[in-house]
Design a protein that fits this description.
About 30% of the residues lie in helices and about 10% in strands. The chain is an alpha+beta fold. Among the domains are: about 35 residues; about 60 residues, no CATH class. A 3-stranded antiparallel β-sheet has the order 1-3-2, with helices on one face. The N and C termini lie far apart (about 90 Å).
Length: about 130
Protein backbone atom coordinates (compact mmCIF):
# COMPACT_ATOMS: atom_id res chain seq x y z
CA UNK A 1 0.00 0.00 0.00
CA UNK A 2 1.25 3.42 -0.82
CA UNK A 3 2.12 5.84 1.91
CA UNK A 4 -1.05 7.77 2.83
CA UNK A 5 0.92 10.84 3.81
CA UNK A 6 3.10 12.31 1.13
CA UNK A 7 6.40 13.74 2.19
CA UNK A 8 6.37 17.56 2.23
CA UNK A 9 9.30 19.74 1.60
CA UNK A 10 10.38 21.73 4.65
CA UNK A 11 9.17 25.28 4.29
CA UNK A 12 11.91 27.88 4.32
CA UNK A 13 11.02 30.94 6.35
CA UNK A 14 11.00 34.20 4.48
CA UNK A 15 13.82 36.51 5.40
CA UNK A 16 12.41 39.36 7.50
CA UNK A 17 14.50 42.47 8.00
CA UNK A 18 15.09 43.11 11.66
CA UNK A 19 14.19 46.67 12.74
CA UNK A 20 16.69 48.80 14.59
CA UNK A 21 16.57 48.59 18.36
CA UNK A 22 13.99 50.91 19.90
CA UNK A 23 14.94 53.87 22.04
CA UNK A 24 13.80 51.86 25.05
CA UNK A 25 16.21 49.03 24.22
CA UNK A 26 19.04 51.47 23.46
CA UNK A 27 18.52 53.13 26.86
CA UNK A 28 18.58 49.77 28.63
CA UNK A 29 15.07 50.22 30.01
CA UNK A 30 12.98 47.10 30.53
CA UNK A 31 9.21 46.85 30.79
CA UNK A 32 8.20 47.82 34.32
CA UNK A 33 11.32 49.91 35.01
CA UNK A 34 10.77 53.27 36.70
CA UNK A 35 12.26 56.13 34.70
CA UNK A 36 13.11 59.01 37.00
CA UNK A 37 14.52 61.52 34.52
CA UNK A 38 15.94 62.01 31.06
CA UNK A 39 19.50 62.15 32.38
CA UNK A 40 22.02 59.40 31.67
CA UNK A 41 21.21 57.53 34.89
CA UNK A 42 17.46 57.54 34.35
CA UNK A 43 16.99 54.34 36.37
CA UNK A 44 18.44 55.90 39.53
CA UNK A 45 16.29 58.13 41.74
CA UNK A 46 17.45 61.78 41.57
CA UNK A 47 18.68 63.69 44.56
CA UNK A 48 15.77 65.02 46.58
CA UNK A 49 16.77 68.69 46.21
CA UNK A 50 17.14 68.37 42.44
CA UNK A 51 13.77 66.64 42.10
CA UNK A 52 12.00 69.24 44.24
CA UNK A 53 13.56 72.05 42.20
CA UNK A 54 12.42 70.49 38.92
CA UNK A 55 8.89 69.86 40.23
CA UNK A 56 8.71 73.36 41.70
CA UNK A 57 9.36 74.88 38.27
CA UNK A 58 6.61 72.76 36.69
CA UNK A 59 4.10 73.70 39.38
CA UNK A 60 4.95 77.41 39.17
CA UNK A 61 4.65 77.41 35.37
CA UNK A 62 1.27 75.65 35.55
CA UNK A 63 -0.11 78.10 38.10
CA UNK A 64 1.18 81.08 36.09
CA UNK A 65 -0.41 79.68 32.92
CA UNK A 66 -3.83 79.64 34.59
CA UNK A 67 -3.22 83.01 36.32
CA UNK A 68 -3.43 81.54 39.83
CA UNK A 69 -1.54 83.45 42.53
CA UNK A 70 -2.63 81.45 45.56
CA UNK A 71 -3.95 77.95 44.90
CA UNK A 72 -5.44 77.60 48.40
CA UNK A 73 -7.62 80.68 47.94
CA UNK A 74 -8.28 80.13 44.24
CA UNK A 75 -9.95 76.78 44.95
CA UNK A 76 -12.59 78.41 47.17
CA UNK A 77 -15.70 79.08 45.07
CA UNK A 78 -13.65 78.53 41.92
CA UNK A 79 -15.95 76.88 39.35
CA UNK A 80 -13.05 75.30 37.43
CA UNK A 81 -10.85 74.20 40.32
CA UNK A 82 -11.39 70.99 42.23
CA UNK A 83 -9.63 69.21 45.05
CA UNK A 84 -8.87 65.51 44.71
CA UNK A 85 -8.11 64.05 48.11
CA UNK A 86 -9.02 61.56 50.77
CA UNK A 87 -11.04 62.49 53.86
CA UNK A 88 -8.03 63.19 56.11
CA UNK A 89 -6.42 65.54 53.59
CA UNK A 90 -9.72 67.38 53.23
CA UNK A 91 -9.91 67.89 56.99
CA UNK A 92 -6.34 69.25 57.04
CA UNK A 93 -7.14 71.67 54.20
CA UNK A 94 -10.27 72.87 56.04
CA UNK A 95 -8.28 73.50 59.24
CA UNK A 96 -5.52 75.29 57.33
CA UNK A 97 -8.01 77.61 55.61
CA UNK A 98 -9.68 78.44 58.91
CA UNK A 99 -6.39 79.11 60.75
CA UNK A 100 -4.51 80.91 57.96
CA UNK A 101 -7.28 82.84 56.19
CA UNK A 102 -10.11 82.78 58.80
CA UNK A 103 -12.27 81.23 56.09
CA UNK A 104 -14.76 78.47 56.86
CA UNK A 105 -15.08 76.14 53.87
CA UNK A 106 -17.37 73.28 52.95
CA UNK A 107 -16.28 70.58 50.53
CA UNK A 108 -19.04 69.80 48.00
CA UNK A 109 -18.76 66.18 46.84
CA UNK A 110 -18.58 65.90 43.03
CA UNK A 111 -17.49 62.32 42.37
CA UNK A 112 -15.21 59.52 43.50
CA UNK A 113 -15.12 56.04 44.88
CA UNK A 114 -13.96 55.74 48.42
CA UNK A 115 -10.31 56.57 48.89
CA UNK A 116 -9.93 59.55 46.53
CA UNK A 117 -12.86 61.85 45.89
CA UNK A 118 -13.32 65.04 43.88
CA UNK A 119 -14.62 68.07 45.78
CA UNK A 120 -15.51 71.61 44.91
CA UNK A 121 -14.61 73.96 47.76
CA UNK A 122 -17.45 76.28 48.82
CA UNK A 123 -17.44 79.15 51.28
CA UNK A 124 -20.32 81.52 51.97
CA UNK A 125 -17.77 84.09 53.23
CA UNK A 126 -15.88 84.48 49.96
CA UNK A 127 -17.15 86.08 46.77
CA UNK A 128 -17.59 83.68 43.83
CA UNK A 129 -14.92 83.72 41.18
CA UNK A 130 -15.78 84.14 37.52
CA UNK A 131 -16.20 81.11 35.29
CA UNK A 132 -12.88 81.79 33.50
CA UNK A 133 -9.47 81.25 35.00
Amino acid sequence: MANAVSPMKTAQPNHVAQPEASQQVKAGVDLGDMVWSVDKNAGLPPERKKLEAQLGILITESLNHFKIDNLFLAMVNGPNLFMICDHDEGVLYSRYMLEKYHLAITPKYISGRGFLNVYQIISPNKKKRGSGL
